[in-house]
C-alpha cells in the first residue's frame, strides 16, 4: 500500500500554553538526538510495512523548531536518506517565534521545506500573557522576517480569536497587523476549551466564559477582512492567497491515508487507525509501541469525511451522500444553509459558523 502523507511529531515545547491539548512537554531528560534516532527508527519500521512516497510531509508538535541545529540537521538528513522524495510537493513545519535564527531557517529551507507555519496567536501583549506565550509581538515580527529572508515561498501565520478579554476591536487590530506583513496563508482558530487543560478548568470555575454570538462575530469579521484582502476562505479556519492552500491538511480532510511518526502521532491507512504511545521516554526506549488501535467502519470513515469536507469551501460531493442525507441537503439548500455548486454542496457564507450541527444531519 502506498502512503503519500507523513506527519512527524516533535513533542518538545519551551513553555506549556494553558489552552493546549496536544501531547507536548519540556525537553526534560530525553535528549534531542535520542528523539530523532527514535523518529528515524519509527520511519524505518513503517517503511517495512508500507511503501512511503510522500507528496506532503508535516512537522508538528510541540515545537519542531525547538530542536537544536544538530538534531534538526540529523532529522532532515535522515528523512532525505530514507525516503523517496521524488513526489514531494509540500514540506511544512510548525515554528514558534524565537525558537529559530537565520541559520536554522536556512537549514530547513536548504533541505526542501517550503512552508512554515508561525505560531503568532495574537499581536496584543496582554493576550499573549493570558495565552502563556513566551514571545512578544516584536519577537514574532522578527521571526517572520527571518523566514521571509530565508526564502520560504509560503509562510502561514497562526492566530486565535475569542480569547478571554479579547474585544472585537483588538481582533480587528490583530487581523490588520497580520495583513500588513503580507503572508501567503493565515489560520484563524476559535479558541476551544479542551478537557484536561488549565483553560478548561478556568472555564469550569466561571473565570472564563464562552459566548457563541461573540465567537460568530469574531469569525465573520475575519471572513470579511481577509477575503476583502484577497484571501480565499477555503476551510473554516484557513485562508490562503491563490495557490497557497495547505496540501497536507487537504489530504486529511479528504480522508487520504497518512502515517504519523513520533510519540502520540496517529496513523490512518485504509480502515486501520492507531496511535504511537504518547510517552516520549517509552517511545525513545521501546520504539513506536502502538496504542488505541481501531478498525473504522465505512460509516465512521464516511461521517468523518462529511464533517471535515463540510468545513471546506469545496464542500461534499452530493453523490457521496446517503439518500436521506441528500434529501436533508436539499432542505438545507431551500433554507439557504447550503448551496449546490457543480456536483458539491457547501455551506453558504452566512452559515459557515454552523458547520458541526449541519454536518451531523448529513451523516449515515
Ligand atoms: S507552543 Fe504550541 S504545542 Fe507547545 S504548548 Fe504552546 S500551543 Fe501547545
H/E element string?
A: EHEHEHEHHEHEHHEEHEEEHEHEHEEH
Largest sheet: 9 strands, mixed
CATH class of the largest domain: Alpha Beta
Counted by DSSP, the helix tally is 13
Overall SS class: alpha/beta
Q: Quote the average pLDDT.
A: 97
Cα gyration radius (Å): 21 Å
Number of structural domains: 2
Task: Write down the overall geometry.
Answer: globular
State the helical fraction: 25-40%
The CATH architecture of the largest domain can be named as Alpha-Beta Barrel
Q: Give me the CATH superfamily of the largest domain.
A: Aldolase class I
Describe the structure.
Helix 1 (32-49) runs parallel beside helix 2 (69-82) and helix 1 (32-49) crosses helix 10 (280-286). The relative contact order is 0.12. The two termini are 28 Å apart. The chain contains 13 helices and 15 strands. The mean pLDDT is 97. By secondary structure, it is α/β, with parallel strands linked by helices. It has a nine-stranded mixed sheet, sandwiched between helices. A three-stranded antiparallel sheet has the order 10-11-12, with no helix packed on it. Strand 1, helix 1 and strand 2 (51-61) form a beta-alpha-beta unit. It has helices spanning 32-49, 69-82, 102-110, 125-130, 137-150, 168-180, 198-204, 212-228, 247-253, 280-286, 298-309, 323-334, 355-360; strands at 2-10, 51-61, 90-95, 115-121, 154-161, 185-190, 232-235, 238-240, 259-261, 266-269, 272-276, 290-295, 316-317, 338-341, 344-347. It is globular. It has two domains: 2-253, TIM Barrel; 297-364, Arc Repressor Mutant, subunit A (Orthogonal Bundle). Bound molecules: iron/sulfur cluster. Iron/sulfur cluster binds at residues 13, 16-17, 20, 22, 24, 61-63, 96, 119.
Amino acid at each position: 500500500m502506498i502512503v503519500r502523507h507523513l506527519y512527524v511529531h516533535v513533542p518538545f515545547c519551551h513553555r506549556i500554553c494553558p489552552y493546549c491539548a496536544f501531547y507536548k512537554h519540556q525537553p526534560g531528560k530525553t535528549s534531542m538526538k535520542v528523539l530523532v534516532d527514535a523518529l528515524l527508527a519509527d520511519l524505518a519500521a513503517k517503511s517495512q510495512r508500507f511503501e512511503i512516497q510522500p507528496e506532503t510531509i508535516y512537522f508538528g508538535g510541540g515545537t519542531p523548531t525547538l530542536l537544536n541545529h544538530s538534531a534538526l540537521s540529523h532529522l532532515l538528513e535522515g528523512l532525505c536518506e530514507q525516503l523517496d522524495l521524488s513526489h514531494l510537493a509540500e514540506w511544512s513545519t510548525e515554528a514558534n517565534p524565537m525558537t529559530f535564527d537565520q541559520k536554522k531557517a536556512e537549514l530547513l529551507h536548504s533541505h526542501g521545506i517550503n512552508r512554515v507555519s508561525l505560531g503568532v496567536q495574537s499581536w496584543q501583549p496582554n493576550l499573549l500573557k493570558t495565552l502563556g506565550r513566551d514571545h512578544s509581538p516584536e519577537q514574532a515580527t522578527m521571526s517572520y522576517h527571518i523566514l521571509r529572508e530565508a526564502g520560504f515561498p509560503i509562510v502561514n501565520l497562526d492566530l486565535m480569536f475569542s480569547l478571554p478579554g479579547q474585544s472585537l476591536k483588538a481582533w480587528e487590530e490583530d487581523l490588520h497587523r497580520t495583513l500588513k506583513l503580507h503572508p501567503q496563508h493565515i489560520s484563524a482558530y476559535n479558541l476551544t476549551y479542551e478537557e484536561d487543560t488549565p483553560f478548561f478548568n478556568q472555564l469550569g470555575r466561571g473565570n472564563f466564559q464562552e459566548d457563541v454570538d461573540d465567537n460568530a462575530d469574531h469569525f465573520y469579521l475575519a471572513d470579511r477582512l481577509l477575503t476583502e484582502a484577497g484571501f480565499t476562505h477555503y476551510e473554516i479556519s484557513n485562508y490562503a492567497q491563490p495557490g497557497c492552500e495547505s496540501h497536507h491538511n487537504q489530504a486529511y480532510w479528504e480522508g487520504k491515508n497518512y502515517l504519523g511518526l513520533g510519540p502520540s502521532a496517529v496513523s490512518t491507512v485504509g480502515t486501520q487507525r492507531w496511535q504511537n504511545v504518547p510517552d516520549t521516554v517509552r517511545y525513545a526506549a521501546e520504539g513506536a509501541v502502538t496504542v488505541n488501535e481501531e478498525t473504522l467502519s465505512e460509516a465512521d470513515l464516511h461521517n468523518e469525511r462529511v464533517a471535515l469536507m463540510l468545513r471546506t469551501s469545496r464542500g461534499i460531493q452530493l453523490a457521496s451522500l446517503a439518500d436521506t442525507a441528500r434529501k436533508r441537503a436539499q432542505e438545507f439548500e431551500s433554507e439557504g444553509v447550503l448551496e449546490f455548486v457543480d456536483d458539491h454542496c457547501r455551506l453558504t457564507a452566512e452559515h459557515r459558523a454552523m458547520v458541526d450541527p449541519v454536518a451531523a444531519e448529513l451523516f449515515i
